[in-house]
């Protein structure tokens, strides 16, 4: 948790995925990443 806190204080947004998400649902993973990037660029 402290690593996540440090990253967030540096201005990063941390998005976590389970191994199962990576292994069986990469389309969904990419959608989450794309949505996060779109939301950030809209600000």
What does this protein structure show overall?
- The chain has 43 residues and is mostly helical.
- The protein has a domain at 17-43.
- The protein is built from 3 helices and no strands.
- It has helices at residues 2-9, 19-24, 26-42.
- The longest helix has 17 residues, at 26-42.
Summarize the structure in short.
The chain has 43 residues and is mainly α. The protein is built from 3 helices and no strands.
What are the defining features of this structure?
43 residues; mainly alpha; 3 helices
Q: Any chance you could write out the topology, listing elements then pairs?
A:
Blueprint: H1 2-9, H2 19-24, H3 26-42
| Rounded average pLDDT | 93
Helix content: over 70%
Number of strands: 0
Q: In this structure, how is the largest beta sheet organized?
A: none
Distance between the termini: 26 Å
Helical segment count: 3
- The SSE order reads HHH
Q: Given the helix and strand composition, which structural class is it?
A: mainly alpha
Q: Which percent band covers the strand fraction?
A: under 5%
**Radius of gyration from the alpha-carbon trace, in angstroms:** 12 Å
Uncertain ranges: none
Shape label: flat
């Amino acid at each position: 948790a402290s690593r996540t806190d440090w990253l967030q204080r540096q201005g990063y947004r941390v998005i976590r995925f389970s191994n199962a998400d990576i292994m069986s649902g990469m389309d969904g993973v990419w959608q989450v990443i794309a949505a996060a990037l779109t939301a950030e660029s809209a600000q």
